[in-house]
Design a protein that fits this description.
single chain; 164 residues; alpha+beta; Immunoglobulin-like; 2 domains; five-stranded antiparallel sheet; four-stranded antiparallel sheet; 9 strands; rod-shaped
Length: 164
């Protein structure tokens, strides 16, 4: 009877040894261990696009005489960037011009915001890379609301957004 117990123990030992060998050979043949012993080298480069836009105008601060009904202002915008840019104008007045001034670009009209001192003209257009554009806007005076003013001082800022 002792032989039967010893032979059962040896069979289990041999079965466990075979299972271990199968696992090891499976790992080696499927490349699981290769992940831990292999070596790789890589490199990555990114380059930011050049962003170079300039605006030239006779004055960024101007005075609008109220004895005229309409005054036209222009500025040259040059896009030396590698990508297209869209542009917007922000006209800031020293005084409240609610109901007094309307800005016009093309056929679109813009009125002062709730403060009465700022007119935002968003998304006027897109300037392609390496191109120039003449941006023209008009200020229209509503004579009914002058209230003794003779002139209005304002400044113009241009905002650019890079277009993909």
């Amino acid at each position: 009877m002792k032989n039967k117990k010893a032979s059962r123990g040896i069979l289990i030992d041999i079965a466990l040894l075979l299972v271990c060998l199968v696992c090891i050979t499976t790992c080696l043949s499927s490349g699981i261990m290769a992940r831990f012993v292999s070596r790789t080298d890589s490199a990555d480069k990114a380059r930011a696009a050049k962003f170079d836009v300039s605006v030239s105008a006779s004055d960024t601060t101007a005075t609008l005489s109220l004895d005229q009904n309409t005054a036209e202002y222009s500025m040259k915008i040059s896009n030396h960037s590698e990508t297209a840019v869209s542009y917007s104008l922000i006209i800031t007045f020293e005084n409240d011009v609610t109901d007094l001034i309307t800005a016009k670009v093309g056929d679109r009209e813009f009125h002062p915001d709730s403060s009465g001192k700022i007119i935002c003209i968003d998304d006027i257009g897109v300037i392609q890379a390496g191109k120039d554009v003449d941006a023209v806007f008009s200020l229209i005076v509503n004579n009914a609301f002058i209230n003794g003013l003779t002139e209005i001082v304002f400044s113009t800022d241009v905002r650019f957004v890079q277009v993909d």
